[in-house]
Specification:
Layout lengths: L8 H20 L8 H13 L4 E6 L4 E4 L3 E6 L2 E6 L6 E2 L7 H7 L4 H4 L3 H17 L4 E2 L3 E9 L2 E6 L1
Pfam families: DUF7283 (PF23954)
């Protein structure tokens, strides 16, 4: 036989090297799929592009979210993904750092009960977009992302949170 005896030192060294490589490969495999930022962006774009007021929700399988007026990023156990928003800019209205009035409108309150005028709604939306444009940050992702487009006397705002 032209076989190396199992007792030789170089056989054991080879087995050890293969074991280390196999373990390293297995440890590098993500523990889950990457979050679907493109699906979230598509849902936001559908609502933002609609000519009539619209509302939608999108389930999130991510731990963290980063919203800006022009893109959405998701992070989870499988990694991070980012997708651009084609119909924007949108107005982030998440729990951290956004105007409470915008969150109330996003939750379903009519804008004329929350804001004095369409101009006040527009000012609040511009301020929120500016804040998120300057400092987009990772926040805890909700289970469901809510999107609502508002049309009020010529003012058009798409809220996301």
């Amino acid at each position: 036989m032209i076989d190396a005896p199992i007792e030789t030192w170089y056989t054991w060294l080879g087995i050890a090297a293969v074991s280390v490589l196999t373990l390293g490969t297995a440890a590098g495999i993500p523990s889950g799929p990457t979050p679907d930022a493109n699906g979230v962006a598509d849902t936001i774009d559908r609502v933002a592009a609609d000519e009539l007021p619209a509302t939608a929700e999108h389930g999130l399988a991510a731990d963290r979210i980063r919203l800006s007026p022009t893109r959405v990023s998701l992070r989870g156990p499988g990694g991070s993904t980012t997708a651009p928003l084609r119909f924007g800019p949108v107005t982030p209205a998440t729990n951290a750092g956004s105007d409470d009035r915008l969150r109330r409108v996003l939750s379903g309150e009519p804008p004329d009960r929350v804001f004095d005028s369409p101009e006040a709604l527009d000012r609040a939306a511009v301020e929120s977009r500016g804040r998120y444009r300057r400092n987009p940050r990772w926040e805890r992702a909700p289970n469901r992302l809510r999107i609502r487009s508002i049309r009020w006397e010529g003012t058009r705002v798409t809220l996301v949170g």
